[in-house]
Fold this protein.
Amino acid sequence: MSIDSADTATGVQTLPFSKALNAGLRAAMANDDRVLLMGEDIGRLGGVFRVTEGLQAEFGERRVLDTPLAESGIVGTAIGLAMAGYRPVCEIQFDGFVFPAFDQITSQLAKLTNRHEGRMSFPVVIRIPYGGHIGAVEHHQESPEAYFTHTPGLRVVSPSTPNDAYWMIQDAVASPDPVIFLEPKSRYWPKGEVDPSARALPLHASRVVRRGTDVTLVGHGAMVTVLLQAAALAESEGISCEVVDLRSLSPIDYAPIVDSVRRTGRMVYGQEAPGFTSLGSEVAATVTEQAFFSLEAPVLRVSGFDVPFPAAKLEGAYLPDADRILEAVDRALAY
Amino acid sequence: MSIDSADTATGVQTLPFSKALNAGLRAAMANDDRVLLMGEDIGRLGGVFRVTEGLQAEFGERRVLDTPLAESGIVGTAIGLAMAGYRPVCEIQFDGFVFPAFDQITSQLAKLTNRHEGRMSFPVVIRIPYGGHIGAVEHHQESPEAYFTHTPGLRVVSPSTPNDAYWMIQDAVASPDPVIFLEPKSRYWPKGEVDPSARALPLHASRVVRRGTDVTLVGHGAMVTVLLQAAALAESEGISCEVVDLRSLSPIDYAPIVDSVRRTGRMVYGQEAPGFTSLGSEVAATVTEQAFFSLEAPVLRVSGFDVPFPAAKLEGAYLPDADRILEAVDRALAY
Amino acid sequence: MPATPDADAHDPALVRVLAADGTLAPSAEAERYLPLVEALPDSELETFYRDMVTVRAFDRQATNLQRQGQLALWPPSFGQEAAQVGSARATRAQDHLFPSYREHVVCTIRGVDPIDIIRLMRGLTHGGWDPTDPKNGNTHIYTLVLGSQTLHASGYGMGMVFDGRTGTGDPERDEAVIVYYGDGASSQGDVHEAMVFAASYNTPQVFFLQNNHWAISVPVSTQSRVPLVRRGEGYGMPSIRVDGNDVLASYAVTRLALDEARSGEGPRAIEALTYRMGAHTTSDDPTKYRTSDEERFWAQRDPIARMRGFLEQKGAAASFFDEVDAEAAAYADDVRVRTNELGSLDPDSMFTHAYSEPHPLVEQQRQWLADYEASFEEGRA
Amino acid sequence: MPATPDADAHDPALVRVLAADGTLAPSAEAERYLPLVEALPDSELETFYRDMVTVRAFDRQATNLQRQGQLALWPPSFGQEAAQVGSARATRAQDHLFPSYREHVVCTIRGVDPIDIIRLMRGLTHGGWDPTDPKNGNTHIYTLVLGSQTLHASGYGMGMVFDGRTGTGDPERDEAVIVYYGDGASSQGDVHEAMVFAASYNTPQVFFLQNNHWAISVPVSTQSRVPLVRRGEGYGMPSIRVDGNDVLASYAVTRLALDEARSGEGPRAIEALTYRMGAHTTSDDPTKYRTSDEERFWAQRDPIARMRGFLEQKGAAASFFDEVDAEAAAYADDVRVRTNELGSLDPDSMFTHAYSEPHPLVEQQRQWLADYEASFEEGRA
Ligand SMILES: Cc1ncc(C[n+]2csc(CCOP(=O)(O)OP(=O)(O)O)c2C)c(N)n1
Ligand SMILES: Cc1ncc(C[n+]2csc(CCOP(=O)(O)OP(=O)(O)O)c2C)c(N)n1
Ligand SMILES: [Mg+2]
Ligand SMILES: [Mg+2]
C-alpha cells in the first residue's frame, strides 16, 4: 500500500483527481470484499490513466481483473457476477469504446432490476473516462452522457473535483442500482483537496459552486472549470454569475438550479456533448417549466457542435470555452 | 408482382401503411439496382410485419437477403456493401433489438462520411419498427429515437401515414447519408390514401396536419394519431388545437412549429419515449429559445414515464393517450 | 436453402443412444456415455417420459390460450422436449440455469410454476419468477435479446470460481452453470464473448445449443455451413454433438459435461440436434418457409414417441402411459384454470422496481399518475 | 500470465520457411508453400527487405516526432514488419485491404503516403487518405474501434460476390479482401459476426490476425488459452498459423489463401505469430507488464535480421544493405521534413463532411461559428 493512500489518512490531503479516485476505489474495496474491478489493462498496468494503479498488487488478481478485450463481455459478465453477489466496477477504457457494450447496458443492466421485480439488484458501476481537451485521436474525446441519462434504470453521475471523485465513487459502488460513472479525463491531473473524514454531499445532489446574481451557469464534469473561468471573466465586466455543478446527471437535483434561476432570471447551460437531444436540452426544458415566470430570457445552451467530434487540432474550436459561455451570457442579458 | 402494387398504378390508392411501405421499397428497388434489402426473416417470410412481402420473390435472393441473426453484423456488412457501391436498407426486427448494432451505427455508420472527409458516402437506411400499442413482450414496444437524434451524422425520420411511408422510404433510400427510418408499428395496419404520382413534401419537412389557434400539439409517428384525437376532443370543449407532425426527427424543420407557437402561445409535445433527455426535451428547449416572447406557458411534455417500458397489460397506463395530452393542454391554458 | 436434416441425422460424430423407434442402438460416439444411461433407475426413465408428455400438454394448452386471446404470444417448446428434459435432469440441485425464452420444459422441471411463464407471455410481467427462491431451482428468468444471457451465465460462472463454490472435487457440492441458446442466437457477438470469458476464467459452464434447425424463417445453414458444434473447439472447449431428440443421450452428455465442468476442467459446449415441430411463436406461419416433407421427416423422430418406444420395449405397461396422459391433461387443465383467474396489474407497479432505491423523478411521476387517476375517480364520483 | 513465446515458437503446425538466422529451413507445414517462395525473383526478395527496413525507419522517425510533440500519438509497427510486408505483397492490385490501426507497413506498400498516416496521428484528420483514389491501392482507412473493420470487410466481400467481381477463375482479375486485426481484437463480438457473415456469403476474404502477443498490457493467453488460429475452423474456414516474423512464409500463406479465396473457395483465416517489439503506443510503458527476457527472446527473432541473413546467405552484396539503409534514412527524413511543413486546420472544415448533403442545423452552426470568429477579428481591428 502506498504511503499517501487517502483512506488511511485522517486529515485533508491534496491529491490529483485520478489519485483521489484511486483512493476512493481502494476504500470501497477494503470496505466490502464483494467489490471487484474489471476492465482492459486495469490490473498490471493500472489502467491507461493509472486510476487503478497498485490495486491489483494490493487486492490480488481475483479482485482486479484484466479481462479479455470485449466491452459487451465486460458488462455482460459483470451482470452475471452481480447475480452471484458481487459488486463489479467496470472500466471502459475511453468514452468511444462503450458502444459495443450498449446492448448489455441498455437492454440488460438498466432493466434487470425491473425485470426481476426487485428480487435481485444490480450494483454495477461502469466507469467511463470522457470528454475532450486531451488532444487525442477519434473516439477518445467524446461525451456520451445523453445516451445513458435517457435510459431508465440507470443512475448517471460525474464528479468534477478530487473530493467528489473520492466520495462519489464510493457512493456509486455502494448504490444498489447500476451507476454510470463519468470521469472528466481532462480533470485527472489537476489537484484538489480531499477530505476523507466526511462526505460533503449525497451522490445525487447538485452543488452551487459560486454564488452570483445575474446569470446562472450550469454544467458538469470538466465544463464546471470552464463555467468558473467564464464567471471570473464576467465578474471583471461587472456581471455576477452563479455556477452550479450538476454532479448527478440522472436523476438531476433541480432544486438548487431552479432556486438560482428564480433569483437570476437567466441561465446558460454548458456541455461538451453535441447539443441536439442532449442533457442540456433536458435541463433547459425542465428549468423553463419550473421557473417559467422568473425567466427573463430563454435558457441558452452552449454545446459541442452537432457534428462528429473533430480531429484533435480542432478541439479548441469545437469545445465550448469561457468565451463561448460569455457570448451566451451576453445574449441572455440582452433579452 | 401483386396486382395491387402501388408503383405500377398511376392514380391514388388506399393502402395500409405496411403495404405502402412495401410499394415504396419496391419502387426504390426498381429504380436503382444497387438497392439491397437485408435483415432477419425479410426474404422468404417477408418480415414479421410483412413489410417486405413478395420482394425476394420479385428481386431475387441477391437483392433481398435473409441474413444471419446478428444486428451488428447486419449494419457492419451494410457499411461494407455501401463502400462497394450498394445502397443497403437494413431491417431491425424490433426496436429493442437495435442495441447490439449500436456501435456500428454510432461509431461507424454515423461517422464514416466524416472520417472519409466526404470521399465516400454511406447511403444506408436502417428501418426500425418502433413504439407501443401492440401489447407485446419486452423489447418490442420501445421508442429509441433519442439515441439516434443525439448522434451527429445520422438523419432520423418517421412517417405517420401511408402516403408518407411510401414517399419517405424512397427519399430515405435516395439520401446519400445514413437514415434511421422509424416505423410506428401500431400504424402498420390502418389504411390511408397513397398518391404515387407526386411526393407531397421533402423528407425533412414537418407538416401542420390540423389548424388551430389556442395550443400547438407536436409529435411524430403513432403519437400524431393521439394528438389528432386530443384535438378533436378539445374542440368539443371549445379549445382549438393546431397539430404538427414532425416527420423528420433529425434535422427538425422548426419553422412550422415556431410559426404555430408564435400564434398560439402554447405548446404540448407528445411522445411515447421516456421524457428525460428526449426528443421532446430538445423540441421544448429550442422552441422556447425561438419563440420566447410568444410563449404564454412553458412548453409542456407528455411522455412515457422514466421507467422501463412496462409489461404489456400496463401499456395503456404508460403510453400517453388523448386524455393525458388534454390534461397538459388544460395546464398550458391555465398559465 | 432449406434445412438438410438428413446430412445431420447421419453425422457419424453424433451421440445417440436410441433409434427413432426407441430401440437401444448406441452410436459409436455414445459408448463412453452408456454407463451413465445404464445407471438410470426405471423410475428416472419414467420421470423423463412423464416430463416430456406433461410439458407438451402444457405447451399445447398455452398455444390454445394464446389463440383464445389469453396470451400476447406463445413460443412453443413442441418437439424440443428431449433436449430440454435430458439436459435439465442432468443438472444437480446446486447448479444455475440460464434459459433463453423457449425453455419451458427446463424451467418447470427445475420447479418453476408454469403459471409464471404464462404470466410473462400474458403481458403481466417481464420476469415471472424469483431465481433466488429455492423453489425455482436456481433457474434464471428468460432473456429475449438473443444471446445476452450467455454472458450473464459466464459471469455467474466466474463468481462460482472466485468464491470456490466449484472445482473442489465433490460433485455433490461443486456448482456449475448451464446456459441455453439457439442456432440463430449462435451468430450473436455476445455468444462469442461469453465463450471467450468462459474459457479465459475456466468457468464450470456448459453452453447448451438447441439447434432446432430454424431461427424463425431462416435455416441453420445461413448461420453456419459447418456443424455449429465446431465453434466451441475454437475456444478450446471440448464440444459434443448429441441427438437432441434422444432424451437419454441428451441426459448423458449433459451430465458428463456438467460434472467435468464442475470438477474444474472448464467450460464445454453441446449442440443438441432437434427440431421446432411447431411454429416459431403463435404469430408465425411456418408454411411460408418450410416444406411438409421436412416436417414429416422430423415428426417421425418425435422425442416422445422415441422414449415411449424404449419404455415399451423395456416392458412398461400400457396403464403407465395412460396414467401419464391423464396426469398431463390435468396439469394442462390446471394451467388453463389458473390462467383464467389471473388478475390485472396496478399501474402504480410499473414504478416500483425501476430502481432498487427511491428515485426522485420516478417518485414524482408515480405521484402524478396516482393523482391523475384519482382525478378521474373524482370526476366519476 | 506472461506470453509464452517458446510454446508457440515450437508449434509443429506453424508454417515457417526461414530459421531465425535466415537459413532456409522450411517446417513440415511449409512444404506446400515452397513453390510460391521459390517463384519469387531476387528483385522481389530485395523489395521485401527494402520495405521492411524503410518502414521501420519511418516508424522510428514517427516515434521521435511524437516525442518531440509533433504527433498526438504513435502506435509503432516495430517488429511486425515481416507479417505486414509478406501479407501486403501477397495481395494483388485489385484486392481491397482493411487495416486496423497499426498497419503502417501494409498501407505504405499499397501506395499510401506515410504523411497521411502522420496527419491522422497528428490530429489533423480522422481519415487521412482516399481509398477510392487508385494511388492508394484500395487501402481503406484506419479503424480505431477494435474489430469493427472486420464487418466492413465482410460486407465489401459480399459486394464482390454479388457483383461477380470474384470467383470467375481468373486470378488476375478476381478480387479478394484482406482484413487485419489483432489478438486483443479477436475477442470482440464483431470479429465473430464478421466470420459468420463471411462464411455464410462465401466471401473472397482473408482474416489476417497479427498475434503480437499483447493487447496493450494483456497477454494473448487472456484472450485464448488455445491457439487463436483454431477460431477460424469453427466457421468452416481453412486456417493457417504462420511465423509472422518470416516474411517469406507470411507472403506465401497469404498469397495462397487470397488466391484460393478469390477463386471462389471462400474465406480463410491466418494467424501470424509476431511480436510488438516496441511500446503499444508512445503513451505506453511496457516495462510495467513484460520482462526483458521476453523482449530479448523476440529481439533474437527480429524479422529484418532474419531476411537479411537469408539474403546474405544468397550472396547479396554488403553495398545492397548500405543502399537500403541510406534510402530508408532519406525516406524517414522526408517524412520529418514534411511533418514540419504540415499546416493547421480551418475550423470551418469540421462542418463540411458531417453529412454528404446540406444539413440545416450544421449549416446554422457553421455560420454561427464563422460570425463568432469574425466578431473577434472585428474586435481586434
Ligand atoms: C438480438 C435479437 N434479435 C432479434 C430477435 C428477434 N427474434 C426472436 S426469436 C428469433 C429467432 C431465434 O432463433 P434461435 O436462436 O434459433 O432460437 P429458436 O427460436 O429456434 O428457439 C428472432 C430473430 C431477438 N429476440 N433478439
Ligand atoms: C472497442 C475498443 N476497445 C478498446 C480499445 C482501446 N485499445 C486500443 S488498442 C488496444 C489493444 C489492442 O490489442 P490488439 O488487438 O492485440 O492489437 P495490437 O495493439 O496488439 O496491435 C486497446 C484495448 C479500442 N481501440 N477499441
Ligand atoms: Mg432455432
Ligand atoms: Mg496484439
